[in-house]
Every structure is written in structure tokens, then in C-alpha cells.
Amino acid sequence: MTDLRSKLLVTRTLPQLSQARLDKGFEGVDIVQWKEDCAIPRQEFLKLAKGADGILCLLTDKIDAELLDAAGPQLKVVSTMSVGYDHVTVSELEARKIALGITSGVLTEATADTTALLVLSAARRLREGVDAVIQGKWGAWSPTWLLGSQLTDKTVGIVGLGRIGVAVAKRLKAFGVKKFVYQGTRPKKEVEKEVGGEIEFVDMDRLLKESDVICVCCALTDKTKNMFDYEAFSKMKDSVVFVNTARGGIVDQDGLIRALREGKLGSVGLDVTVPEPLPTDSELLTFPNCIVLPHIGSGTLETRTAMSEIAIENVLSGIKGERLPHPHDA
């Protein structure tokens, strides 16, 4: 008799409610899960993937030809618990007719919150202020100490005006921003309506030169990789607030370090780096005007639960041969 059971590989423990669903199990599905408190080691990933019909992975898990070969020809679906999929070799999946699911839409609000948080923190020199309190450098009140900048009457440039970019603009508008400029593919009338105020499409050079704040909200692609290099930073105002909550690879990190070293930037806020995690001896961490977070853009219980639920629905649909609720090409 033919065994009709399917194998599902899950590469990490999920948030509580979603993990409870996995622990309860699904009819006709054998679940193999990496539950250690670390990313699944590559060799373990290759071993556990063998015979899998579906894989639920994270952005830390590289899905390439080697992994797909290890899994075998029965693999029907890869479901990543992320909106970005630069860790997946899409062409390999397409050639093998393997579906790819992502968790689009649900992390917009949390990531936009984090972007606004970094803009305000970098602009108001939060890291230096906290360090001053902890290190006992907080003395008598001074009218010239730790002066940051505010957003009132400033120009904000947004690179990548998708869902997250629009949500960021809406948040920052409340702080008195005078004007938004953007790079992206969406029509001006459409984004003006969503943002609810003046926003202008401009070329990249103008965005770099005119913006008081620059927020990176675009996807990592061959076109955007290392888009922000030393030359780009050199075109910015030396008072600029530069924030990246998209992907670390969009920024040439050596160019960023050089620009910071030479005082070409006002302040920097990063939720993403290369590599991740960032080594503790990275020069980036030595600059008092650079705040680095550990890739927590979508890090709320509500959002991570929603992401894991979508990832589960995607992988179960794929195993059954059904259309994914949230395919990467939607």
C-alpha cells in the first residue's frame, strides 16, 4: 500500500499560538521541526530536508539548488516567514515547479513603527543620551548639550514607496514634515491620496541632495544591491538622518563606515546589517551617532504570529497542490 503521508520541515520554533497548531499536527502530515534556539545549521538543514514535500523556512535559511537537490523531486512548496525572499534562488524553484509563499502585508505596520522609531531616535541622539545617563555623564542642564534635530518643516526622502514606505510617510507626517520626496514605481496621484499630503517623485540624485531624512524601504534586488555606497552618502547633507529597515545588502557597509568616519552624515539608524548578527567588533558600533537594532522591524507578538499563520497556510496549501494564499508573485 502506498504511503500517502506528506513530510513538512519547519526550520524554527514559531510564536506560541502557531507553535500550538504545529504541536497538534495536521492530518496526513508528518512534521519535522528544528527547535533549537539558533538558526538551523546548514548540514542539518540539508539532512532534514530529504524527502520533504513542504518547507517552512525563515530569512536566515538559504534556499538554493543544493538544498533543493537534497530535498528531492517530491518537494512542492517553500514557504518563507518573511516578505523578502532574497535568501531564495527563485529561478531554481521556478525551474522545478516549486511554489514559493511569502508573508506579505502583515508586517507593514510593525516595520513602519520601527522605521519611525529609528528616525526619531537618530535625529534626537537617543543612543548618546542613554549612554550619558548610564555612564554618569549627565551633568547640569546646558542649552547646548546633546542638541538633535526635529522633523518640523523638513524634507523626508523615501526610497521604495510600497506598503511600508507609505505607512512610514503617514507616521512621519504627524511630526510636521514639510515635504516628502520618493523613489518608486507607483503613480504620484495614487501615493498622494494614500499619504494624504504633498509627495513628489524625484530622481535619486535630487532625493539624496535635498532630503533631511532618508528612509530605505525598498526590496533587495540586483538593482538595489549596494545602492547606498560612499558616492551616494557623499551627495547627502552632512546633517542627514539615514535609516535602513529594509535589507542590509542595499547599503555598501564599508562605504557607510567611511562616510561616518569622515563626518559626512548627521546620524544613522539601522535595523539591518551585513552580516547578521553584526559582530561586536564592527566599526559601525563605535560611532555614537549610529544606532543599530538586531533586525526587529517586524518584532511584535501580533505581527510575528500573523506571519507564522500565513506561512503555515501557504505551506499546507502547497503540500495539497492548491494555489498558495500568499504567493511571492501576487
Can you put this structure into words, describing what you see?
- The protein is of the alpha/beta class.
- 35% of the residues lie in helices and 15% in strands.
- It has helices spanning 16-24, 42-49, 65-71, 90-95, 108-123, 126-134, 163-173, 188-195, 204-210, 230-235, 253-261, 301-319; strands at 6-10, 29-33, 54-57, 77-80, 99-101, 155-159, 179-183, 199-201, 213-216, 241-244, 267-270, 290-292.
- The strands form 2 sheets. It has a 7-stranded parallel sheet with strand order 8-7-6-9-10-11-12, sandwiched between helices. A 5-stranded parallel sheet has the order 2-1-3-4-5.
- The longest helix is centred in the C-terminal third of the chain and has 19 residues, at 301-319.
- The mean pLDDT is 95.
